[in-house]
Fold this sequence. Notes:
The complex is a heterodimer of chains A (499) and B (152).
Chain A: H1 8-16, H2 19-37, H3 43-54, H4 59-84, H5 93-104, H6 108-141, H7 146-158, H8 160-163, H9 168-182, E1 185-186, E2 193-194, H10 208-225, H11 244-249, H12 251-266, H13 272-286, H14 289-294, H15 300-316, H16 318-324, H17 330-341, H18 350-353, H19 357-378, H20 380-387, H21 391-410, H22 414-431, H23 436-459, H24 464-468, H25 471-498
Antiparallel strand pairs in A: 1-2
Helix pairs in contact in A: 1-19, 2-3, 2-4, 2-19, 3-4, 3-10, 3-17, 3-21, 4-5, 4-6, 4-15, 4-17, 4-19, 5-6, 5-15, 6-12, 6-15, 6-16, 6-19, 7-23, 7-25, 9-23, 10-21, 10-22, 10-23, 12-13, 12-15, 13-15, 19-20, 21-22
Chain B: H1 2-27, H2 41-44, H3 48-70, H4 83-102, H5 107-119, H6 125-147
Helix pairs in contact in B: 1-3, 4-5, 5-6
Amino acid sequence: MFSEWLYLPEMASTFLGDPLVWLFLIAGVVLGYVIGVIPGLGPTMGMALCLSVIFRLEYTQGMALLVGIFVAACGSGGITASLINIPGTPAAAATCLDGYALTKQGRGREAAGYSVMASVVGTLGGTILIFLIQPFVTTIALKFGDWETFLFCLFGILICGSIAGGSKKKGWIAAFVGCFLSLVGVDSVQSVQRFTFGNAELLGGFDSTIAMLGLFGIGEVIYSLREPEPMRTVANTGFPIINVKVLKKNIGNIIRSVFAGLWIGFIPGIGESAACWFSYDMAKRAAKGEEKEKFGNGAEAGIIAAEVADNSCSAGALIPAMALGIPGSSTAAIFLSAMYIMNLRPGPTLLIETPGFLCGLCLLLAVAAILMGIISFVLARATIKILSIPERFLMPLVAVLCAVGAYNSTGTPFALIQLAFFGFLGYIMKLRHYPIAPFVLGLLIGPTADTSLRRALMQYSDNLFAMVGRPFGLGLTVVLVIFFILGLKSDRSEGREED
Amino acid sequence: MTGSKMQNAMEGIVVALVGVIFMILSLGIQKNPVVTQGPIGMFVEAKFIPFILALLITIQGARLAVAQYKGTEASISDGGLTKRAMTVMLLTLGYLVLVSFIGFSIPTPIYVAVLLYVVNEGHALIKILAITAFYYVLALFVIPILLNLQVL
């Protein structure tokens, strides 16, 4: 179990000894920084765009590019939130409260500084904890059979309501439709055709890379260009400033936020958007006297709590993704797709089939976090220029890049028809406030849930009690029932409050 | 009053109807070539999970419709189908369909230029043409050459 940690020196030389890995990592961080800073774009779209090119790269280089975008795009959203009061990414929404309040007081450089520093610390903290926890999680995951895998998939779908943010019903509808569409094509148990309508191009089902390019890319292009965008007022700023005294005062806040973010990331489906608010609330409750009153009016602790948790959560969401192949957030879902493209098989056997993978990933995450910190300082002045580029000039390029990416992922013109379908679906979902993350979750875990349930039932067809009575399965069933009852209770109490 | 309530509930009704269509489609899936004997057999069929999912979509759609009818859940939409929204959507989806038939070379500059013209409301023509040329070279030549992608 502990042998995975011993690969660290070997992986350090494999990953960090290759100049091309550095090149792709730096390119990824710069690209991710730009994507994160521009409102409307985000880590999910940035990573989805690069999915179509990573299969041309060595797996170390592909991972470097992906990790660079992932870390920098998640971390830089707070800068935009602090400087112009528009969250660069949805997960940076909580940063707006105190970040922009500080900017209005003429302390924009400090707001950007705390945001960047908290992002770096959050990613590093999350990475260290992943490194320590992952081998244990994987050992437990190895005890999983088809029945337990199905139950875990069910757990992911069950809590889709909570990802929705707004309407739980819409979250579940999105997840179920995603699951349903993932079953198009030939089934993997007995090769029965489902919903192909005699079309040979649908035999392989929908391509998840194209689906994500459509949902997050084309859908966003149409959605953001449908109305004239409001004028942006950009604050004047220079190099970010960090006050060491404030940092010292917030050590407890940082540690608490790292754990809070990691815990939320670990639960499949909740994601960074919830982590930042959860941690912000915890920091506010923990504050006393004058400090408490500063929350909402420019509290450094508020920025730090939100950004640390947001970034730690992004890292934490990779734990279930790697151990069980079930994504903890939409960015983790794209990460999973990328791993499949690079011939890596996420799941309990990942660390056996690809020894040292965890060390390599953690090293890339840590280096990318440090690079992101440096690049944020170097690009501080350019950020203002980046922030002033209107979406109406950027989005046509995003659309063309999505088309190029989709075409290259399968090499057939049908990819573009799929892209148009998912783009339209993504636009309608955004317009009607259906969350896309549960849809993606459903799309990715649908085939696994279907295959594992049917295989488990066939295996235990003569003794179902033996299947249900397996220790891990029994434990998961109890957790599922508790979550289901709690979900029903909260649904009813929400209904009563609305009444 | 009832008319506006029904209008609110339309979204849920549409979702429930989609669920019903999915159910009908699921029932049309062929039987497994190798049949599992006993009561378990039904759950192992290829149509089982799609049917259950379709049923769940129908139930959630109906719940949504009831909640919207009662007014406990609002039917939200970020703006209707305005002329601009329709133009952007048709242009983008039309571009993708066209590219699947005739390739990237001709539709791409036309799409970028027309889209930029529409969203900038006809202003800054020179800028639009310059950006179109830049995006064309960047997306169809520079990036594909750098990443060894097949486009043209």
